[in-house]
Amino acid sequence: MIGAGQAGLAAGYHLRAAGVPFQIVDSHRRVGDNWRTRYDSLTLFTPRQFSALPGLELAGNRELYATRDEFADYLESYAARLRLPVTLGRQVTRLSKTDGESFEAQLDDGRIIVASEVIVATGAFQRAVVPELTHRFGDGVLQLTTETYRNPNQLPDGPVLVVGDGASGRDIAAEVRPFQPVLLAAGRSRKLFPERVLGKSIWWWLNLLGVLSAPPESRIGSKLKRSDAFPDRDRSTESLASRGIRILPRLTEASGRVAQFADATSADIRTVIWAVGYQDDTSWLDIAEAKGPDGAFLHEAGISPVKGIYFVGRPWQRNRASALIMGAGSDAELIVQRLLSDRE
């Protein structure tokens, strides 16, 4: 298995329960470092009651959100307590097929692991997207991404432009504002839904009503996927504007320290923080049939067209919950069941 994040560990839980021997390989030095390397103030997207993996509760107030480090430590404890076989500090640089039905995973230290099946659990946050406009800003502009931004203390004095108004972009803009002037460049119109309804978390209601389990091709699923909505934890544009954050339309051009926007306005910038999403790194997968023309992973509900390759933790793998911690366990269980079925 490739990846020891929440999806990989959940798959490990179900593989162990099924008595299947396996090995998890992860490039980080510690289990949970995929969370520890993100910005300091990050909290989970879902409350603790929806953020645990199978077999171990996440301690704390179930209605509130675990911090970045709290959840990273939980993952590390999970792997240790369940005695999951994890090889850390090693990266799979190439996955190929042998002459037979097996796979060969070459590690960055030269070792080769031969396996009859491979579960890819590399997650949806592999590499931060940086648009071409990055090259048009001058050397006097500090440029960071959601991977390299940690906290406001690393920023020089001067206006900060956050590009991207998703959950992370809004969090960072709100955190930086007490220290520096902040501009937030939005993209398409976003919908936010209330954090709580009738005293219950919105995730409780969405789960109860079956919205999170709706497949992407369903009417509800397709509508939810198009809107890409997230809970309003005091992060509406109105709330951000009331704090003095300047809300602007899409960034269209840059030159030196000047940023230009879709409404023809411009602003002098000292720092840019790119928060426009993530993209997969599939360069290590040396099996043409497992990737599309654009190099993206090919799969249907986590099942690759190449026999023996499976995925867990992909966005909208089966439904909205697939990209959430709450969906990792159920998706992993189904993938392990399919793997066992394919062996028969």
Q: What is the β-strand count?
A: 21
User: Structural class, from helix and strand content?
Assistant: alpha/beta
Kindly report how far apart the N and C termini lie: 20 Å
What's the pLDDT, averaged over the residues? 94
Q: Tell me the helix content.
A: 10-25%
Beta-strand content bin: 15-25%
How many separate helices? Answer: 8
Helix-strand pattern, N to C? HEHHEEEEEEEEHEEEEHHEHEEEEEEEH
Q: How does this model look, in words?
A:
With 344 residues, the chain is an alpha/beta fold. The protein is built from eight helices and 21 strands. It has helices at 6-17, 33-36, 68-81, 167-176, 202-208, 219-227, 237-242, 325-343, and strands spanning 24-25, 86-87, 92-97, 103-107, 112-115, 118-120, 127-128, 142-145, 160-163, 182-185, 192-194, 196-197, 200-201, 230-232, 246-248, 251-255, 258-261, 266-268, 271-274, 278-279, 309-311. The strands form eight sheets. It has a five-stranded parallel sheet with strand order 8-19-9-10-15. The chain has a three-stranded antiparallel sheet with strand order 3-4-5, with no helix packed on it. Strands 16-17-18 form a three-stranded antiparallel sheet, with no helix packed on it. Helix 1 (6-17) packs across helix 8 (325-343). The longest helix has 19 residues, at 325-343. It is globular. The model has no long low-confidence stretch (mean pLDDT 94).
